[in-house]
Design brief:
Layout (H helix, E strand, L loop, with lengths): L8 H13 L3 H14 L4 H13 L3 H14 L4 H13 L3 H14 L4 H13 L3 H8 L9 H13 L3 H14 L3 H13 L3 H14 L4 H13 L3 H14 L4 H14 L9 H4 L1
Length: about 270
């Protein structure tokens, strides 16, 4: 039927959407493009094509197609949201913020949309506005992403207690390597060394292959004056990454602090 009706909007659009639902975007794309061409006044067809471009990271085409879809249906929040995300990928955060703000008027309680809007404002340099938008998301609906962004925004404004609370919430909701490292760094920045050691010990146990978490643990131990333990961590890092001169430096400082070159971990410096 497709080959007999290549310009039939319903046929090509439906088949394209079937492939898209299966995740076969490369097969879906030419069909969705044909559907949009067959019915250029259809906002839905343009939006479907734009989303496919967006998912394939074809940013320029996604921006152009979704812009047209918004013109055809200016009050569709889903289309506006997709357009805003395309603008974000195009590094046009200020324009994206305007689009997300308009979409939020249609769906004021949508937590994901509020996060997108806040992120756009943050990337555009409007940090305080980002915090205000995030505050509109009910506590029970805040994602780890939203809490992490909250931490970054509050930190930039000098609200350190609030930033710490947000980073803690992000790590509790999603104890990923990124979120745990962000929490550990926040504690280090503000001299909460005991807590930083606890977080990094937990994090390294969870992600033992993570170089940055092991580095964070070494830094927290050194800052907390536990030089022998810090030396052990930095010696392990230096063995694993002998080209990282910083590890040799921190290991040397730790060994100098414990005043023992015979300490097993410090002998690694001789090899280095």
């Amino acid at each position: 039927m497709l080959f007999r009706s290549p310009s039939n909007f319903e046929v090509v659009e439906t088949l394209g959407l079937i492939y898209a639902e299966r995740g076969e975007l490369e097969r879906a794309l030419p069909l969705l493009a044909a559907g949009s061409k067959a019915n250029p006044s259809s906002a839905e067809a343009a939006a479907n094509l734009g989303v496919a471009y967006l998912q394939l990271k074809r940013v320029k085409e996604a921006v152009a197609t979704l812009s047209e879809a918004v013109k055809l249906d200016p009050h569709n929040p889903q289309t506006r949201t997709s357009y805003g995300r395309a603008l974000m990928l195009a590094d046009r955060a200020s324009e994206a913020a305007t689009i997300f703000a308009a979409a939020s008027k249609e769906q004021p309680a949508d937590a994901d949309l509020l996060y997108d809007w806040a992120l756009a404002e943050f990337d555009a340099g409007n940090v305080r506005q980002a915090s205000v938008i995030l505050s509109r998301i009910p506590v029970g609906s805040r994602s780890a992403q939203a809490e992490s962004l909250c931490g970054d925004a509050e930190e930039k404004q000098g609200n350190y207690d609030r930033a710490l609370a947000c980073f803690q919430s992000a790590a509790r909701l999603e104890p990923s390597e990124d979120n745990l490292n962000a929490l550990g760094l926040e504690l280090l920045k503000h001299w909460s060394f005991d807590q930083a050691v606890e977080i990094y010990e937990y994090s390294v146990a969870k992600y033992p292959a993570s170089e940055r978490l092991r580095t964070g643990l070494g830094a927290a131990l050194y800052a907390n004056s536990d030089y022998a333990y810090a030396a052990r961590i930095f010696s392990q890092l230096l063995v694993s990454f002998p080209s990282r001169r910083a590890y040799a430096k921190f290991l040397g400082q730790s060994c100098a602090a414990i005043k023992s070159e015979s300490f097993d971990s410090c002998r690694v410096l001789l090899t280095y």
